[in-house]
TrEMBL record:
<protein>
    <recommendedName>
        <fullName>Fibronectin type-III domain-containing protein</fullName>
    </recommendedName>
</protein>
<dbReference type="InterPro" id="IPR013783">
    <property type="entry name" value="Ig-like_fold"/>
</dbReference>
Amino acid sequence: MRLLVPIAMIFLFIGCGKKDSPKSPEQASLVFPERNSECTTGQSLSETTSRVEFLWQPSDHTESYELRVTNLNTGTTQTAFVETPSASVTIAKGVPYSWVVVSKNSGSPNTAISEEWRFYNAGSQTNYAPFPAEIVEPQMAANVFKDVNNEVTLSWVGADVDNDISSYEVYFSTETPPETLIASPAAGDMEVTVSVSSNGIYYWQVVTKDEAGNSSDSGIFDFKVF
């Protein structure tokens, strides 16, 4: 009996000291500015800038958020750190942007990143260039397998505030920048197949054109074939 008492005390101490692992934050759902839209509700600060309030739904197990707003013309990213599901950021007028929200919890090493949405901050123009094509696959620096026909499929997603995309130009090469135009698909066609060789490194980009003569560039992506 004397031996059982200290053993019971040890188990009691261990049980009381055990804590549940902190739960990882979950992904936030974006609300505003809406996806592939023109944002017209910003507070005008000057002829070139306005202040826009970004909104998202609160995410579970989250203590704070990091808002990342990226100018798609320059690649420059602005960040805001907040504890509430909203933040105001001063951005340029008439420029396309993308934005994401990172959910954080100080008790967990993990973070959760929302979907990426794109929008145009309203400016003086009445017609906007298309959003740069969003590359679906292969992603940047991906390692891919060719199919039985020694081909790989390139795919992307296009969007335009004015909904007047007319066509795409796909450039593909073993050199960068890729200068060989391999396809000019119509607005509804957002994939092409290309011939590749094992151990080859390839570069590609998509130029989106609209009916008003505007265009945008996806940037250059590369991948390696096994």
